[in-house]
Fold this sequence. Notes:
Distance between the termini: 35 Å
Helix content: under 10%
Number of helices: 3
CATH superfamily of the largest domain: Rieske [2Fe-2S] iron-sulphur domain
Number of strands: 21
CATH architecture of the largest domain: 3-layer Sandwich
Structural class: mainly beta
Largest sheet: 7 strands, mixed
Radius of gyration: 19 Å
Amino acid sequence: MSTSRRGFLRGLVGAGAGAAAAGLPGCAPDISPAPVLDAQKESDGTVILQVARYPDLTKEGGAVTLRVPGEQPLLVMHTAEKGANEYKVVSAICTHSGCPLGFQDGEAICPCHLSRFSTDGKVTQAPAKAPLTKYEASFDGVLLTIDFAAGEEGFPSVQNGKIFFPFSSFPELQTAGGRVQGVPEGYGKLIFVFALEGGAYAAVDSLCTHQQCPVSYDESAGDLLCPCHNSRFTKTGDVTRGPDPSGAITIGPLKKFTATSDATGVTLTIS
């Protein structure tokens, strides 16, 4: 499962990253990239790995980059942080410029510009500013289970394909310009809900359609910004700026959810 760093970059995120790899700064450390592993989600939104089958996961300090259809790549790390086998899972793409991450000295490291992240995704060294996405994972001694549908405590969950935001709990949605964001259980990814002018609502997923980096809300501009390649999206998910100033690379809008409201709150349809 070994691979060269340049080949790893091409294989993980395509030719664009491969070209970037050719121009990596000379100061970049000689980081061994996490080998790429493909997996499929179960019907309940989990991925289950039999750890013994993957030498890079059985050893402390080992890691793999996990590719799952429809999801951003994940960095799966064997950390032994509690004195026993411990696995941590975060998004595998640096939030600074979109480079794939390696795992070294107990941290996720970007070979392009030396950004570092703790195993729970927090930035420990710039130039990256935004954290990585953290995923729930459990290990029973044989099987490692990664939960793509886990949600954020206190945030509404998906029920029968819908998410309800009562105004009593989310009063900010009663005023134009209000915003709610979080990770609903049953969906597992960050979403944004916006109260628009005229009483309308918009709701979008957070994954940029270029290389699946998570976008964040830019308070100063009032829109959504991808920190990896500076793409921008409106509150309704439409693209206003792509990753390439020349326009050579075109991308699609963010995933949108149908949002309706009544006197009690806002309901999203998740599909």
